[in-house]
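quick one: threonylcarbamoyladenylate bound model?
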Amino acid sequence: MKINLSNIKKAQKLLNKSECVAIPTETVYGLAANAYSDKACKKIYKLKKRPKNNPLIIHYLNSQILKRDCNFNKDFKKLYKIFCPGPITFILDLKKNSKISKIATNKKNTLAVRFPKHPITRSLLKKLNFPLAAPSANLSSKVSAVSSAHVKDDFGKKVKYVLEGGKSSIGLESTIIDIRKKPKVLRLGGIEISAIEKSLNKKIIMENNTSKISSPGQSKLHYSPGIPIRLNVKKVCKEEAYLLIKKGSKKKPNFYFLSKNGNLKEAAKNLYNTLRKIKKDKYKSIAVSKIPNKGLGKTINDRLKRASKF
Ligand code: TXA
Ligand code: MG
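yep, here:
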């Protein structure tokens, strides 16, 4: 994707004035604002209709800049070297003198941080003298946005500017890992847990105790297209949209495919786009055929399971 400097300058100008701007990332689009400004962060919550107790991920250009705000340990350094910039979010201890807005952290003493890989957002971060707080650019509890058109569908003119960055290449949110003590995954995402385990040479705990949620955004209902979803369906009704992992020989108007041959990366990239398309095509419900529970398939199944709680 070509980098258009005048677009980046426009985003920079608005962000410097404490406005919100939607930004492209390789995972999903984010709704960004100055992470050092209470006024700017408040606007994110208002636009997204996000509960105030759900803290924001802060996006940095590199770990050198992050040093101002967080402490890090050996595990962080190892994973940073291998996976960053990329689809991984770390939970770290906030430094006492950090300038991060308490609105963004909900006064927690930890911070979720990420280093996005998308070249346009990296160029933007280079021009700013603050990091960007950015939750996914969708209405709270709904399907994330993987293109600028999706952001516009959700927010219309309420978002002052959407920085164009094409289709998100991964299409699922980042993997969230708390590495302050024993590494613990709080959200499955674009990087497989097995790859992280290999890099750290450690077993990683998966947190799935939703009664004591340490990542508040991981509440049960999430990623919902706004219509009911049935999972692991073999027989579909005529009125339902049928979501399949790969293109089979059967083609019907209500069949939607996530990939050509069952490739899970391709399926991940198409998931949110397809869920949004089904809703636009006016189906009242979705039946999903079984999706292999391995690799990124685990993240796809996690999102569909949460979306089915509608
Ligand atoms: O790929 C991504 O992570 C995208 C792009 C835009 O970077 N962002 C994203 O943000 O998915 P959001 O806000 O939709 O999800 C962030 C999750 C929420 O579940 C939130 O509760 C959790 O991160 N979180 C934020 N700060 C936290 C903290 N200090 N401790 C634990 N969880 C935290
Ligand atoms: Mg989200």
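The chain has a mean pLDDT of 94.
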